[in-house]
Structure formats: structure tokens, C-alpha cells
Amino acid sequence: MLAGCGDISASSVSVKRNIIPDSAAIVSAGSNEAGTASAASQVDSSADAQTSSAESQESSELKAGSQSESAAAATDAPDKTSGTGEMTIHFLDVGEGDSTLIESQGHFLLMDGGDRDHSSFVVSYLKKQGISTLDYVIASHFDDDHINGIVGALHVFTVSEMLEPGYAGTTNVYQSLKNIESQKSIVPVVPKVGDSYNMGSISFTVVGPANYSHDEENDNSLCVLMICGNNRFLFTGDAQETSEKEICGTGISLSADVLEAGHHGSSTSNSETLLNAVSPKYMVLSCGKDNSYGLPDQDVIERIRDKGISMFRTDEQGTILATSDGTSITWSTEPSTTWAYGSVPDRTNAAGSESWDSTISYNAAGDTGTSAKYILNTHTMKFHLPGCKYAEKISKKNYAESNESRDQLIAEGYSPCGWCNP
Known about the structure:
By secondary structure, the chain is an alpha/beta fold. The chain folds into two domains: about 70-330, Metallo-beta-lactamase, Chain A (4-Layer Sandwich); about 345-420. Helices cover about 20% and strands about 20% of the residues. The chain contains nine helices and 20 strands. It has helices at about 55-60, 120-130, 145-155, 170-185, 240-250, 270-280, 300-305, 315, 405-410, and strands spanning about 40-45, 65, 85-90, 100-105, 105-110, 135-140, 160-165, 195-200, 200-210, 225-230, 230-235, 260, 280-285, 310-315, 320-325, 330, 375, 380-385, 400, 415. A seven-stranded mixed sheet has the order 7-6-5-4-3-15-16, covered by helices on one side. The radius of gyration is 23 Å and the shape is globular.
């Protein structure tokens, strides 16, 4: 471990490999935790010349760095791991899902892997980085839009250590994850709060959940604090307000330069309590363009803007890279300035006719026009209470009603909505 980076010690399996990443053009929008601005990343090199004069030696050791300031297109995946700092974080554009690749000194960590439609993209992206071994794979929780790409990655890459939450999923994709873990003789670790690990020049600590017994599976999401020198990055998966308040009470400092927005910018997450505890300078939002959930929620966007937090978002900017040298953070693109939030999809088709079932009312809770016990989204495999704000955003082709029991729906592969908690 390099001095000044990742000062939380722990034992872990680590595969050492000599990979020298290429430098990528980056535009600086970053700063250290104290708020020091960095106009662009620098590559420092010491002068070669030797001299007997102390004055001359001091002069020869001045920085002779080169600087690159061309803006890399955020949607273009680089062929090699980019950045010249101690750590590079790739916030992958996986639509309405989540996947993050973290690199430090030729070591790699994959956190979540996006949904089924982006699984092959995640595997391809990792291959482009020259990866053959993943030091760590972390499944924040077992929603399909987080673990599909993990299943794909486990088929292709060697994995040294797997971390996942301590509860059982209910979907077919979860069973596929268990099957490939068994085939590859991977025994996942279920960490507890305070467990720390090292990789390259960084460390990371599990800060949540407080327990794995939450009724809402999203609240069982692993929450991880990445540390590189003075820079800190917090990831909370789909943890909702209940779990957020619990992790704020663990006694572990959650202060961080960068917070990945919880649950794709949903108002069930990103609580005032968490934002005040983290006090981030930057947030990164991973969500799909024009997604059927109407994410990010307006109140979350307004909360972030009102706090003066700079926002990066994959639905507008594609894959986003953040590089830390332990002191400052540089980004592959400038922050978003749209402050756009999601909305209910247009209910009419191109011809102007009704594209949703006109016999169904999609109004607010309590005025649904249906006697069904549950509303189903056959695409996302979520079920909702009638009147749930997310149920009213389901398109006609994905809309179904059910009077089956909660347990029956779960057995069929459906997951309960995290907002209405059916």
C-alpha cells in the first residue's frame, strides 16, 4: 500500500498483476475533501540531472509535468483503464441499473453489473480494460438490475473474493448467481459493518446495512465507503431512508467527496439525513434515459441542487470516469447542468391514440379504478399496491393485475415495490 492512501487495514485476497494503464484525456471538475479545486490532472516527473550544488538540485527536482485538457466523450469506453492517479472509478452507463468498476494499481473491483440488457456490455467493457482477474466483486443487493451483469462477469473472469448481503433473493437471476458461484467454487463473504479491505493503494469499508433482516430488500443493500488518501466515495446501492438513517447512526464517519445517488435517484432514498451526514461535493446518478419509473424524482433533484452539489448522470452523459490521486478528483466530463427529473411517460403513441388501457385509472393512491389486490410490472417483475406512484407509470404492454398472495407473487419471481411496500 502506498503511503497516504487507504489507511484502514484488513486482510484480503489480492491478485498482483503488472498492468500499466494508459492515460486518458480528462477535464477537471474535482477537488479534495477540503474543497481544493483542480483545474486539470497533472503527471509529475522528476528531473534526471544530478548536481553537487544543493541549489541546482532543488531546481532540478521541480515539476516538469505535462497536462492534458481535451474533454473525453463520456459515452466512449476507453480501451485501457484511464487516469494516472491512485484510483479510477468507472460509473458505467447501464441504463436503468447500476454498475461500477474501480481500478487501483492494476487491481480491479466490480460493484454490481446492471440488468440483462447490459450484461454483455459490462463484460465487454471489462475486457477492454485488459482484465482477466477481478480482485473483488460486490453485489450490493439482489435486484435484477444490479446482478445480471455480475452473473455474466463470473462466467468470464477469475474472481478472488465475492462480497454480498446476507439474505436470499427470490428471482431466477439470483438462482443463476448461486449456480455460477457454485460452478466456480466461489464462497461469498457476507460482511458486517466495520469490515475493511485493501486493494492496490486504496481501502474500502462496509458501513451498512446495520442488519440483514429488513422487510424491504433494498434496505439490505451493502453500503461501501471507498478511500484513497484524502478522497472518499460512498456507495449505498438501493438502500432506502430506513437503512440510511441506521448507517448514519453507526458512529462511522460517512463524510465523502462523492456520493452515488441511492436507488437511481428515487425519493425513497437520498434522504436529508444522509445528505447532511455525507455532505458530498459531487453526486453521480445512474439511471436510464426516459425510464418507466420516472426517475430521478423531482424532489431529489431539487434537494441536490439546493445543497449546491454538482451532479453527474449516466442518462445524459453516458459512462463517467472519476480519477483520484489521493488529494484531488478529476472527471471525464463536466457536471450536468440540466437538473432534469423524470416524469410519467407519454400515454399516447405517435398517432395520438391512447397507448394505455383507457379502462384503467392511473391516478393517485386511493383512486385507481381497480379492485385488484396488486398491480404488476411484467417487465421489471415488480408488484405494487393499487395507487402506488410507480404503478401509475407502467406502460400498457407491461401492466397486469393480480389477486394472488404476496408469497405467491414472490415465488413466481416478482419483487415488492420499495416505495409502497406491498
